[in-house]
Amino acid sequence: MFLLDVQHISKSFQNNLALQDVSLSLEKNKIYGLLGPNGAGKTTLIRNITQIFFPDAGQIFFNGEKLSQKHQNQIGYMPEERGLYKKMKVGEQLLYFAQLRDFSKAEAEQKINYWLKKLDIESWRNKTIEELSKGMQQKIQFVATILHEPTLLILDEPFSGLDPINAELIKNEIFELHQKGTTIIFSTHRMENVEEICEDIFLINKGKIILDGNVQAIKHQFKKQLIKVDTNSTVLLNDSILSQTDITEQADTHLIFKLKENQKANDILKVLLQNNIEISGMTEILPTINEIFIQSVNNN
């Protein structure tokens, strides 16, 4: 059974079709990347999952049940546009959000104390939100989102405004939540974070899912048959090497080859060894998620 099963949903705003027959299924305890250019439909999809909007067609199921109000407390959503009250103190604000999730005051205070201590931000308790930097506000928003220990956590650009140290801190918290069983949807434009964090991705463009699957499987799907060979010294290319291989790049200590039809990496090695080239390593070059993103969107 999927934790979240989105079945053929569509959503329009006046004459704009924001989502077109979108389907996706999320297994429990995995981290998914939700990618797409600006205006592709990511936020509309998230708002249908969080029941801020409701689809015009199609259905959404949560843990095998039709998504409804009773599932709200199992979902945590941190939007890109922050939802904090600037004049409220941090402690009061977190207490307010926790009580909206049906926590008693005592339970809420216990959770708040735990997270403020864990993130080493106890001294912020009596500061107002407007006294905090953007990065500090981001950490408070993160705490407010996870206080109720959601089963499904949706993070929209969670590292926005964070310095490298705090970005690493929040990233580690995301991994820890994942290890404890939380399913996570991670929406971002920072493809290096996708490579590092996500197991599977969904790429949406013009309101449609145009690519989905395991990150590594997708990278292999888009590979361009490039092989990098590391050498101990600069290679002097001769007619034998040039006639049997297709070299796309040469540097002091490596060569990059594009495999010809029916050619294998071992065939490249054989040619180089026959020409007394000293080889220190060989790797297959796979495209980055950023390259795949650009190619897929441009072709759609």
Shape: elongated
Number of contiguous helices: 10
CATH class group of the largest domain: Alpha Beta
CATH topology-level fold name of the largest domain: Rossmann fold
Beta-strand content bin: 25-35%
Radius of gyration, CA atoms, in whole angstroms? 24 Å
Low-confidence stretches: none
Output the CATH homologous superfamily of the largest domain. Answer: P-loop containing nucleotide triphosphate hydrolases
**What is the β-strand count?**
14
CATH architecture field of the largest domain: 3-Layer(aba) Sandwich
Global structural class? alpha/beta
Main sheet: strands, sense, barrel = 6 strands, mixed
Please trace the helix and strand order, writing H or E for each element. EEEHEEEHHHEHEHEEHEHEEHEH
Distance between the termini: 31 Å
Give keywords.
alpha/beta; 4-stranded antiparallel sheet; Rossmann fold; 2 domains; 6-stranded mixed sheet; Alpha-Beta Plaits; 300 residues
Question: Can you offer a commentary on this structure?
Answer:
This protein is of the alpha/beta class. The chain has two domains: 4-215, P-loop containing nucleotide triphosphate hydrolases (Rossmann fold, 3-Layer(aba) Sandwich), CATH 3.40.50.300; 222-290, 2-Layer Sandwich (Alpha-Beta Plaits), CATH 3.30.70. 34% of the residues lie in helices and 28% in strands. It has ten helices and 14 strands. It has helices at residues 42-49, 90-100, 105-118, 134-146, 164-179, 191-197, 215-221, 239-244, 265-274, 289-299; strands spanning 4-13, 16-26, 31-35, 57-62, 65-66, 75-78, 152-156, 183-187, 200-205, 208-214, 226-231, 247-250, 254-258, 279-285. The chain has a six-stranded mixed beta sheet. It has a four-stranded antiparallel beta sheet with strand order 2-1-4-5, covered by helices on one side. It has a four-stranded antiparallel beta sheet with strand order 12-13-11-14, covered by helices on one side. α2 crosses α3 (105-118). The two termini are 31 Å apart. 31% of the residues are buried. The mean pLDDT is 93.
